[in-house]
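We recall that each integer encodes one residue's backbone shape. We quote one record:
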Amino acid sequence: IGMVGLLEKVARVVTPWFKSAGDIVVLLGRTREELGGSEYLALRGEIGSTAPRVDAGRALALYHALSEAMDEGLVASCHDVSDGGLGAALAETALAGRVGMDIDLSVLHVENDVVALFSESQSRFVATVPASMAAAFEQVFRGLPCQHVGKVYKAARFRVRNGKRVRVDAALAQLETAWKRPLAW
């Protein structure tokens, strides 16, 4: 999908990579048990039966709020959650920004960690917000699905847990090696 639009304030461009230690990581949108047709199941040779669905009305409200938050300068970074789900989006943003993160899946209230990490539920974004702007950001998203899932750290580690149960704890260099391996570059 492509899009063309007029950008009135170049200084308000929001890039996808995480930037600063101390920024809060938020997940915008709802995570549902929608693994049908996902990258996760494809890697396992499966198709699944519950494909992601779009709720256009809720999506539009979320998009308007995100646009407003960006216009107000409240968003440090933002990346869509799509192919590969939240796990892939987080890894992509960490590698691009060369910063670490600590993520807690328990705040999503999803029973299955595989679903929390790899569901491809539509109309979701992972964003970072400077801690000093968190209250203003929350105000913009009042009544919309917005969950603080973690923090950005200076240490180059990618850590994902569910409460105290650690699911992933790896150096960014390990993630980068695994990412580049299929293309040997």
About this structure: DSSP finds six helices and seven strands in the chain.
